[in-house]
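Quarterly update from the structural biology core.
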Amino acid sequence: MKKIIFTGGGTGGHIMPNLAIMEEIKNQFKIAYIGSKNGMEKDIIKNVPYFEITTCKLKRSLDISNLLIPFKLIKGYFDAKKILKKERPNLVFSKGGYVSVPVIFACKSLKIPVVSHESDYSVGLANKLTSKIAKAVCTSFEDTAKMLKNGVYTGSPIRKEILLRNKNNIKNKFNLKQNLPTLLVVGGSLGSKTINDIIEKQKDAICKKFNIVHITGKNNKIKGENNYNTIEYTNQIGDLYNLADVVITRGGSNVLFELLALKKPMLIIPLEKGSRGDQMLNANIFERENLALTAKEDELLQDENLLLQKLELLYKNKNEFVKNMQNKQIVGNKKIVEQIKKYLK
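Predicted structure, tokenized:
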């Protein structure tokens, strides 16, 4: 049986899509994973061999730790090369992120084929550095594939468990008023302090119109009360999506496409500061195609009425948003697997 090694990590956006493809091919190939020593992927990846390498993340600010990047990249390269020589995979699938860079350069030296995936509308730094090495770069957005010579528009990898979940598995865990729609607030895999602060300050007004289920992020404890429900983390996100009538989310592509697949009206509050602007671009595309509403952090902080106004507008026009979502190509699992099989050595 041929072997495929997956790589990618740092955030859920680089891990969860890998899980989707791993689930798709688990009965067809041997699977292993190369990740970081301390990243969240180490805790998430289960039931397959996991190999650690030295990694480094570029900080988008003046930080002395950035001076160590060349040395850590070299160390990560040799870590990865040693693992790849021993494991001898027939192909490496990369979901991007800083974890993947030394792995893909090691693949080049060993002539191991690589297929990668870019979730965002704009190509991330890792995929920019490695795209010429990859046989194909699969993309979630059609326009992104056109930006790359080896770009292939496939759609987004989405876990089957997301599509098959049921709100009845979880609704009794929360205090929900039956006469109100339910708002789910998702701040990304690590949570969002800004969104947490906005919701906490405005919860009283919002709770008159919506039940709230707020995922605050690990170690972000916020007290819930009445029909304002808080949890730090969940492994039942699919059930929560199913429970929600509308969703507030960051602009990370994977969550956007999961919500699109489930036809959930969404208000996107993209991360602006400390990012490369990818979430802003994702959000703008979704709003341009009438798949979502967007709001900027600064606007919400300056005008305490704006968030509720946006949510009421979103809920009022939810059927229109759902209609616009109906004909979108979303789930890219099968097309990504086709690319993997095409370039297997």
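The domain at 162-325 is CATH 3.40.50.2000 (Rossmann fold).
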